[in-house]
Amino acid sequence: MNRKDFKKAILLLLSLVTILWAFEDAVASSPNFDFNIQSHHLIIQIDPSQHFLKAEDRIEINMKWGRLQTLSFLLNPKLKITRIVDQRTGQPLHWSETSFSAHAKRVDVSLQKIEESPVLSIFYEGPIYDPVVKERELQFIRGDQTYGLISPEGVYLSSVSHWYPGIPDSMAKFQVEAMIPEPFRIVTQGELVSENVKGGTWRSKWVDGLPAESLTLVAGKYSIKTRKVDGIKVSTYFFHEDDRFSEIFLNAAEEYLKIYSGLLGQYPYKKFDIVQNFFSSGYGFPTFTLLAPETIRQGKEFLRPGALDHEIVHSWWGHYVSIKPGTGNWVEALTTYCSNYYYKELKIGKEIARKHRQDVMQKYAIQVPPLKDYSLRKFEGKDTELDAQVGYGKGSMVFHMLRRIVGKDLFFATLRQFAMQYGGKQASWEDIKKVFEEVNGKRLSHFFSQWLDRPGGPQLKLENVGVRVSSNGYIVSGEVVQEGDVYQLLLPIEFDDGSGERRLFLEVSKRRSSFSMEVPKTPLKLTLDPDGHLFRRLYPEEIVPGLNALLEDREKIFIVSDQGDEESRKIYFELARKAKEQKGGEILSIKDVTEEKLRNSSVVLLGESWKSPIISKLISHLPKPVDHKEGSFFIKGNRVDEGDESLLLTFPNPLHPGKWVTLYFGRSASALSRARCIFFYGWDSYILFKNGRPKEKGNFSPVQSFASYDFLKRSHYNEIQPTGGLHIFLADWIP
């Protein structure tokens, strides 16, 4: 090689070395999560008085793509690693730490010996203490928040705490050996295989045989009650002062486990624990649920559809079969359908189930403005009221419509097959579609596409409705109009002649779909989908009056009375302040109110502000069954007792169509004892409370319905003409 070629070779070699160095630096600066964690074996000691955790995590690794030199983990930045050991050789390993996020650091572990299945022991310790931040939303959306807390009040360590070394999107088995001083008791996922107290320390061992996305551990000063339900160990972990509620919750859990095991297949775990938290929460984890103190104290009042049963159903959907990351959250939709909705249909009655379906559409219309709407497939979790209506509300209705396509029995049989096929695994909306197509032998691509990939839903209205005399009775005709996106629907149309109802099913797949039907008697009313089986976006005029509808209006005023005792005025002002903080608006005293303000705004009247003369125009004509006369309010003829009763009432603003008026008042401390909860009851038009608890409630009719047509309110019967000829029907009558 001559001198010139040698110089070129040296330059080429230097270039290659530079590239390799740059590559190594890039690799070193990037985390390596490209492996699976098969299992965690955690040995932990917790000291609540010092907010302190000391732990060893024995981690079994399974490599995805060959053999890797460096493995990355995430851990709470407050936790200090003391050593890392290769369990197979007993040799210590080197590691480095870098910041990953505000609540996690990255730990890069260098392996000495490259193996396909290394086993590491990571020893670490330190404090975890992130004080609880109270729920700020008007309605209970996420509960109080903390990134992890070890305290004398209790212990809460979840996935967001990063209290053990983990990686994103991992599915691992967990085993826990935990120690905590008396009187604390630990609860975590899996089966409790042993527990004893020695020297003032409780020692417990827990084994979870099914892979889980993460591990949550809690502790508190609990009284424990247990019973067996078909071989499942069901326990309550309640504070001693609330232990009296244990039997109520155990009875409910027993009922729910039997019902849902019949519907969804065998309960996939060996135990279910109902645990009382020390802050407000409503969380579900594999094998246990963590409920707020005030929730437990409600007793039977809390045990309504969609509460405890919702968390139990998560045992199947969310824990046994979990979400495939990045594919959309189907879990909340299916859990909500099975518990919040289907229990009502199964155990309470068809009318309550029908109201639930209609309420879903009401809530969607109120809290999901079209400009902020998004497709169901993009729903990942509930951070806002809007998210709740998309993911839980609309999502549950999608499963209801799917059930009506395949039939109830086959629907639940398919869900049982889905649980068997994907138990211990992650699944997506596409996997659900695949199983339903396989079991039912129907192509469902269009159904899933139109309901998952479009925001909102169809908007339907009746137009050009007419009636003519025929030789056999009457011919009713009209058009179903779809505004916005056009959906493919099988739409029920109900005809009422006063002696019963008949229905036809109209296939709707274009902007305008005509129908014509012959009926034997004089038609009185025509209604599209009268039972609300199809999800649709309501028009603003179709919204039922309620406080939550008012709160979504940008132009609103809160009028706080300057009458009454100081404590009551303080309660009213705090309600107005909280509502303004979350939803906007303006707070006024009665002396600052003008007729222009009343005419152009939605109005909230708090306390005795409704007694002012300037307000008289607003409350002079109230919808039945509410009346205002002789200076008092009446519901169904009964006077509202201002001593221990309070009234929450919402109705259309008579001075401005499209605006609302809400009134809330009560005179005594007992009447206003749960005033802060009125936002939970804001879906009804009127609610009468007694000592802060709902006594009676109801709804007013919406201003207009575009999905129904009342012949008696029109002039049809003066214009009916006889006709003849042939009539072509789009569907057969179904009684």
Key terms:
single chain, Immunoglobulin-like, Neutral Protease, domain 2, 7-stranded mixed sheet, disordered C terminus
Overview of this protein structure:
By secondary structure, this protein is of the alpha+beta class. The protein contains 14 helices and 38 strands. The strands form nine sheets. The chain has a seven-stranded mixed sheet, with no helix packed on it. Strands 29-28-30-35-34-36-37 form a seven-stranded mixed sheet. The longest helix is centred in the N-terminal third of the chain and has 27 residues, at 3-29. The protein is globular. The N and C termini lie far apart (98 Å). Mean pLDDT is 90; it is low at 16-28 and 721-735.
Low-confidence stretches: 16-28, 721-735
Major β-sheet, in short? Answer: 7 strands, mixed
**CATH H level, superfamily name of the largest domain:** tricorn interacting facor f3 domain
Separation of the first and last Cα atoms = 98 Å
How many structural domains in the coordinates? Answer: 4
Give the CATH class of the largest domain: Mainly Beta
Oligomer: single chain
Average pLDDT, rounded to a whole number, is 90
Number of strands: 38
Q: How would the global form be characterised? A: globular
Structural class: alpha+beta
Approximate strand percentage? 25-35%
